[in-house]
TrEMBL record:
This is tRNA-2-methylthio-N(6)-dimethylallyladenosine synthase. GO terms for molecular function: tRNA-2-methylthio-N(6)-dimethylallyladenosine(37) synthase activity. Its cofactor is [4Fe-4S] cluster. It catalyses: N(6)-dimethylallyladenosine(37) in tRNA + (sulfur carrier)-SH + AH2 + 2 S-adenosyl-L-methionine = 2-methylsulfanyl-N(6)-dimethylallyladenosine(37) in tRNA + (sulfur carrier)-H + 5'-deoxyadenosine + L-methionine + A + S-adenosyl-L-homocysteine + 2 H(+). Residues 161-393 form the Radical SAM core domain. It is found in: Cytoplasm. PANTHER family: CDK5 REGULATORY SUBUNIT-ASSOCIATED PROTEIN 1, MITOCHONDRIAL TRNA METHYLTHIOTRANSFERASE CDK5RAP1. The lineage of its organism: Bacteria, Pseudomonadati, Pseudomonadota, Gammaproteobacteria, Thiotrichales. Keywords: 4Fe-4S, Cytoplasm, Iron, Iron-sulfur, Metal-binding, S-adenosyl-L-methionine, Transferase, tRNA processing. SUPFAM superfamilies: Radical SAM enzymes. Residues 13-130 form the MTTase N-terminal domain. Belongs to the methylthiotransferase family. MiaB subfamily. The gene is miaB.
Length: 474
């Protein structure tokens, strides 16, 4: 069905989007907003009260995130009663898994879409408005599409729009690993990679608009296998080599990766591609081989350590972050100690750790789990204490060093400061001119705080280069 064009938009308010979960969801929410801006002229607003369309992009990785959806929908239905022509949409992984339950339990919801059908949102909203206006339809129900039409999503999303010097580019979707605890393969479908030329075209467009840093995104981004125009398959290493040649792209990140996809050619990138940051997010979940096997991670702790050792041989300053799960069914105190030992040995920077949450439909949900929640909480406390200590020590160790940062914006702390990020993703606030936004500068770190660093400018190599060019032109 053709959707309404911007000139005959049925809305006079704005668009409000609430996002739960991972960076993939943040990326998808940005795409939804730009799609609805282009279709209906809807601008983003800061509160649902100002909005005609409200969307919730949901996450079902853990139970808590899922519970939030139904409590939030309860509030939204009261809000809709005040202005019934508003449209409520629910997308993301909860919609994918529980779409029909939402349809039954939350009649105020008009549109239900999954992570792979968000590009169909305008057509679905048009259909919801048609159903609403059709008096012959007595029992009105939400329009729902939670299918997995594979690559179609990538083909139908709007061109990238830049609002900064760093951009995320989604290169693959879904996961085919089926870890026994995880819902992602069921909610987002199996791994599907975007064609190589499409990804390159998007990055070139971003570079032309002033983007300097690209963060390649995927649920298992290092499982990227994009088809090239000659029919050959490009893996993540090939993509990284190709994108570093794009003028203006001087920093490359990728997240989130799977240990079994750290191929030798990807490891070699740490020697061959200076634009690739010395920071790696590589989840291991647990240090115990027994638990790794029960999780069906298909590798052992020693293989993970060997990967890290190889990368650190090429980049001794590699900052490593990870994801950890404590209290997996059957995890003993000795298993947990192995996790602590692994963390001690590898030294992690700003990582994520969670208590295992049983997810309906996953194999682990049926595993016997005799450990008390109190013990699991205690384990999480110990692990987080160690992870926080390591993070703080890394921050402290950066004081006195010179770091190259990409200046992204004005600082939130002071009118005279600008803010940028180091390779290991720390925010640094520094006194400096807004003209430096979009440039790489060298700063000496002077202070370390919990969530940021403070520094002083040592060199502005790109500004100098620019001035020199002007000087020669005179
Ligand atoms: N690709 C990544 C990898 O190699 O593990 C994982 C992506 S997953 C969506 C993000 C993180 O959520 C996982 O690394 C895991 O720590 C956490 N997670 C997933 N399912 C979970 C569950 N049932 N309970 C607790 N944490 C979970
Ligand atoms: Fe989930 Fe394991 Fe894939 S954690 S996203 S099934 S690698």
């Amino acid at each position: 069905m053709a959707h309404a064009s911007q000139t005959d938009t049925p809305f006079d308010g704005g668009l409000y989007v609430i996002t739960y979960g991972c960076q993939m969801n943040e990326y998808d929410s940005d795409k939804m907003a730009s799609l609805l801006q282009k279709t209906y002229g809807l601008e983003l607003v800061d509160s649902p009260d100002e909005a005609d369309v409200v969307l919730m992009n949901t996450c079902s990785v853990r139970e808590k995130a899922q519970e939030k959806v139904f409590s939030e929908l309860g509030r939204w239905s009261k809000w809709k009663a005040k202005k019934p022509n508003r449209v409520i949409g629910v997308g993301g992984c909860v919609a994918s898994q529980e779409g029909n339950v939402i349809r039954q339990r939350a009649p105020s919801v008009d549109v239900i879409f999954g992570p792979q059908t968000l590009h169909r949102l305008p057509a679905m909203i048009d259909e919801a408005l048609r159903v609403r206006g059709d008096d012959s339809i007595k029992k009105k129900k939400a329009v729902i599409d939670i299918t997995f039409p594979e690559i179609e999503k990538f083909d139908n999303l709007p061109e990238p729009e830049v609002n900064g010097v760093s951009a995320m580019v989604s290169v693959m979707e879904g996961c085919s690993k089926y870890c026994t605890f995880c819902v992602v393969p069921y909610t987002r479908g199996e791994e599907v990679s975007r064609p190589f030329a499409d990804v390159m075209r998007e990055i070139e467009t971003l570079a032309q608009q002033g983007v300097r840093e690209i963060n390649l995104l995927g649920q298992n981004v290092n499982a990227y296998r994009g088809e090239m125009e000659d029919g050959e398959i490009a893996d993540l290493a090939v993509l990284i080599h190709a994108m570093r040649e794009i003028d203006g792209i001087d920093r490359i990140r990728y997240t989130t990766s799977h240990p079994n996809e750290m191929t030798q050619s990807l490891i070699d990138c740490y020697a061959e591609v200076p634009e690739l940051v010395s920071h790696l997010h590589l989840p291991i979940q647990t240090g115990s081989d027994r638990v790794l096997a029960m999780m069906k991670r298909n590798h052992m702790a020693i293989e993970y350590k060997s990967t890290i050792r190889k990368i650190r041989a090429l980049r001794p300053n590699l900052s490593l972050s990870g994801d950890f799960i404590v209290g997996f069914p059957g995890e003993t105190c000795d298993d947990f100690k192995e996790t602590l030992a692994l963390v001690e040995e590898l030294n992690y920077d700003r990582s994520f750790s969670f208590i295992y949450s049983a997810r309906p439909g996953t194999p682990a949900a049926a595993f016997p789990d005799e450990e008390t929640m109190e013990k699991k909480k205690r384990r999480l406390y110990h692990l987080q204490e160690l992870l926080n200590k390591q993070t703080a020590e890394i921050s402290e160790s950066m004081v006195g060093t010179t770091q190259r940062i990409l200046v992204e914006r004005l600082s939130r702390n002071s009118f005279t400061e600008i803010a940028g990020r180091t390779e290991n993703n720390r925010v640094v606030n520094v006194e400096g001119s807004p003209d430096l936004i979009g440039q790489f500068i060298d700063v000496k770190i002077t202070e370390a705080y919990t969530n940021s660093l403070k520094g002083e400018i040592v060199a502005t190599p790109e500004a100098d280069k620019y001035e020199t060019q002007q000087f020669h032109a005179l």
